[in-house]
Amino acid sequence: MNFDLKEIATITMVLFAVIDIVGSIPILIDIKAKVGTIQSEKVTLVSGVIMIVFLFVGKSILNLIGIDVSSFAIAGSFILFLLALEMILGVRFYKNDTSATVSIVPIAFPLIAGAGTMTTLLSVRAQYHIENIIVAILINLVFVYAVLKNMYWLEKVMGAGGINILRKVFGVILLALAVKLFRSNIAI
Known about the structure:
Oligomer: single chain
Shape: globular
Structural class: mainly alpha
Radius of gyration: 16 Å
Largest sheet: none
Number of helices: 8
Number of strands: 0
Order of helices and strands: HHHHHHHH
């Protein structure tokens, strides 16, 4: 086993920025107001299963269609770059539709375990040990569960301004990590 606290911390921060569960509080509150309760346990479990399964089968799928992990990591760095710009500038490049099936769609997928998260998982897999990625996923799932259980309280404590500041800070971190991921996977 190659457990490395630095790797775990880095991957945890990357996933935290991409999942952006704190920045999703207003969306979650809106969905809950429209459809009723959000099943925190179910959302967390389904999100975790999607992420871990994709972490293991994603590479096989890429090999099947003839794409190497470094190329996918570079493509992923572009997606992370755009996600970071969304967070920093407050613009939306991707718009998703809301659904009445709250527990799985749209919260578990695509809000938590969406395209950005899956791309990130395969991208970090090109650079980090798998056990550190799994630990980082589990740490993020704890955050997801805690936010889902306490979203009204968090919104009141942080306020709209606090959530916006946190979103922008993690946007800058994600932007820097996207550049690093691009640089480390580009063939020179």
